């Protein structure tokens, strides 16, 4: 009789981690996979027409990612769980930092969704694509900006972040960061050169979003000042012709009104 060929180290690890993926992967991915970049007003302008994928997304290709390996799938799961040690071991065993699942969700996006910055750093060093979008047009770069993860944004900018990249509402990284008043991220993006007056599908600029969707607190005042200092057009109105100054006045944001009036020269 001949002896069966010895299993390779990769095969053994595949079998071991495959069970782990079945036990913990499904629930974790289902729980996190539906996250989007930022809250938006329900209905009305900005919603993509029925039957057509949102801007930045593509119709699902039935053949896409059918070949994703057990190692790659477990890497996505481990990244989402923030397991730095397991992520490192899976990468060493041959898992790809650039692989994505059926929804286009890669390990780096999973790490950013879980706010696991060290795992994100490991994946970026391993070659993960900071611009890779999932089926909802989320990318690690855009999501890090929307959630205020300055360290990850800084890493993304140093590793090929697309400054012109937009989310499903055609909003740039600067728009989503301004919407949430992430001052440090706004500073990074302005310094990097993200367009300050880009208008998204809702008809809003970063300045308008900071005023309209903010709460008028100090961090939003700082955001508005940063945008104005970077040359944002204080006269650029929304689709209804309402200017940032009028929005600020209607909301009782007196400090913002003064900032905007000073720039407008009134």
Describe this structure in words.
With 266 residues, the chain is an all-alpha fold. The chain has a domain at 67-162: Ankyrin repeat-containing domain (Serine Threonine Protein Phosphatase 5, Tetratricopeptide repeat, Alpha Horseshoe), CATH 1.25.40.20. The protein has 13 helices and no strands. The chain has helices at residues 9-32, 70-81, 84-92, 107-113, 117-125, 140-146, 150-158, 173-179, 183-192, 206-212, 218-229, 244-250, 254-264. α6 runs antiparallel to α7 (150-158). The longest helix is centred in the first third of the chain and has 24 residues, at 9-32. It is elongated. Residues 1-7, 21-39, 41-53 and 56-66 have low confidence and may be disordered.
Cα gyration radius (Å): 22 Å
Beta-strand share of residues: under 5%
Order of helices and strands: HHHHHHHHHHHHH
Low-pLDDT sequence parts: 1-7, 21-39, 41-53, 56-66
> What is the count of β-strands?
0
End-to-end separation in angstroms reads 95 Å
Q: Which CATH class of the domain at 67-162 is shown?
A: Mainly Alpha
Quick tags:
266 residues; Serine Threonine Protein Phosphatase 5, Tetratricopeptide repeat; 0% strand
